[in-house]
Amino acid sequence: MTTPVIQVAHAAVGYDGPPVLRDVSLDVTAGEVVAVLGANGSGKSTLIRAVLGLVPIGAGSVTLFGTPLRRFRQWHRIGYVPQRLGAGGGVPATVREVVASGRLARRGVLRPPGRADREAVAAALGAVGLADRAGDPVATLSGGQQQRALIARALAGQPELLVLDEPTAGVDAGSQEAFAGALRGFVNDGGTVLLVAHELGPLRPLISRAVVVHQGGIVHDGAVPEPAGHHADPDHEHVHPHCDEEPAGLWSI
Ligand SMILES: Nc1ncnc2c1ncn2[C@@H]1O[C@H](COP(=O)(O)OP(=O)(O)OP(=O)(O)O)[C@@H](O)[C@H]1O
Ligand SMILES: [Mg+2]
């Protein structure tokens, strides 16, 4: 099956100054789990924001599910977990309310939630291990638990594509395992994933392809590179013929 879910072609992306990314191309096919790797500030978040139309592209094109981004309206097909919990400080929402907000794109704001909505919310809460916290204010959760609530919100929308920006940053080992399990379920049901990560940890077996961003471009697109620890091993003989492809940062030396 080769349905293109994301197609980025020769995109230039930036904010006010010079482009952060230049001539970036990336295709993601249905069922793939693609990890975006790279050092801090390399442009990983900028790349996924460009895919979602959250930052404009200055050149090139982005296509989602075969539709050019500027004409794409089927946002219920995509779940997005941003890098950090943004607003929400002072908002007295419960965990269940935050997760239920992930259903809004599907049911519309004015229609009351039905059984399908309640079931999707309950399933998502269970998938991230927060069912017992559903009635608690999100402000009383730890940072890692709040991150899990955001993942549950994205899952509750039953998207076809999940876009996750460092979903396991600052999340303990047990929660990472729980998240990996939830993601495995999503992928087994036919979902497609684009995620940014620094440490893949328990996600590693799920990743089908890795893309490394470095100095404004994609410098690797293929197998998951070995983390620095592997190369740091004193017994490791550095014989990779392609070592100049490996970028600076966590994934090199
Ligand atoms: N909203 C913004 N306005 C202006 N510049 C920005 C903005 N967001 C990011 N940048 C700049 O774009 C570059 C890439 O940032 P980006 O957030 O994409 O990096 P990243 O790879 O996600 O880093 P990290 O691993 O720290 O999350 C950086 O130089 C950053 O300063
Ligand atoms: Mg980032």
TrEMBL record:
SMART domains: AAA. Residues 222-253 are annotated as: Disordered. Pfam families: ABC_tran. The keyword Magnesium does not apply. PANTHER family: IRON TRANSPORT SYSTEM ATP-BINDING PROTEIN HI_0361-RELATED, METAL TRANSPORT SYSTEM ATP-BINDING PROTEIN TM_0124-RELATED. Belongs to the ABC transporter superfamily. This is Zinc transport system ATP-binding protein.
